[in-house]
Design a protein that fits this description.
Structural class of chain A: alpha+beta
Largest sheet of chain A: 9 strands, antiparallel
CATH architecture of chain B: Alpha-Beta Complex
Order of helices and strands of chain B: HHHHEEEEEHE
CATH class of the domain at 52-176 in chain A: Mainly Beta
Order of helices and strands of chain A: HEEEEEEHEEEH
Number of strands of chain B: 6
Helix content of chain B: 25-40%
CATH topology of the domain at 52-176 in chain A: Lipocalin
Distance between the termini of chain A: 57 Å
Number of helices of chain B: 5
Oligomer: heterodimer
Number of strands of chain A: 9
Number of domains of chain B: 1
CATH class of chain B: Alpha Beta
Strand content of chain A: 15-25%
Shape of chain B: globular
Amino acid sequence: MMFKILRIFMVSFLFMAPSQVWAVGDLDQAGEQPAGEDLISPSTQVAGATTSTCLTGKPWRLVELAGEPVSEEQAAPYLLFKDGGDFMGFGGCNYFIGKYRTGEDGKVVISSLRATNQHCADSSPRETTLLTSLVMASTMQLADTQLAFAMNGGNLLKLDPAPEIAVDDLLQQGKLLKAKKKRGHKSRSKKKRLAKKSKLPGKPAAPKSYEKARPTAKAPIKAH
Amino acid sequence: MLKKSLTAAFLTIALSLTISSAWADDMPTAISQGVDVAAAVAPPVPTIDQNAWSLVQNAMSWLGTPYRRGGKSGENGLDCSGFVGAVYAKTFGLVLPPSALLISKIGQPITFAELKIGDLIFFNTLRRPFSHVGIYLGEGRFIHASSTGSQIKVDTLDQYFTKRINGFRRIDLG
């Protein structure tokens, strides 16, 4: 009896625990947002922005990084934000894609970053600082057409709108990175599909560990 | 016997509830202070913890590097423990053991609520406890050398990873 009570208790906990952890860890889970977090649609609330079009759909050129101005050179880093929470960018050497999420008071979280793997001696350190700043940034503000990422009240990077930048290469590289990402996810589901297919049609499922295997009638052996 | 078991069950539930409530806390930014930081880079904002900034910067410098099983040097790629080892070696001058399981044994167990940037998250992704490791970046994100055919990338603790968490560890920097 005691063990029965304990078992019921533990089973109910097992059902409860994942939902708790889920609410803690998963930012992507709609409707299960953690208490105190009011994360909303990325295109609806950027501090200082009046509409979503202010942020998305056009390239933003990096003009200041870690307090230092970035000169307008040919390989200047830039970012492109899209509706729906995706963004992509060029760091001067590598292309990268990721997701952005904004909330109240300009709160921003950059996640799911993937990048190409080129090494450029001259631009790699700056690119690393750019990516670090994006990851560490806690707020994103749009003021006087300038976009600024900050943490603890200090600016990490500033970007100006740069509609003149051709983003064809960026879009192409972004598609490649996204396709690579999807292939990775597909492999897991593919494994499940293959596992399902491996079960012959009509073959009874393997008995669960707590069930007793029922004896089945043996099929008659065909005479050749 | 029953009393002990029930106490343990209550404690576990209480812990899980604490974890969920702790999510609302501010983004953690600091890891242990007072360590000789190798390749230290001053953060652009003085209030940002220098260790956290250096560690994230060293980790981000590997972004896009392909996963390579057994890769420790980074020449042709890195595996999960090789990546964590490379970041800790460059940031803190620490040499970590060569596997996720061994790293988990030298780290101090912590809870999700205690996680700060730079702490380690362990997963069971190969049907083996502590078979994968990543570095926590705050806000439910971590960076890791994912798997064969993939690369070093930033991921969120989504359903896939949350289900497979084995635990969290903090490496003693002293």
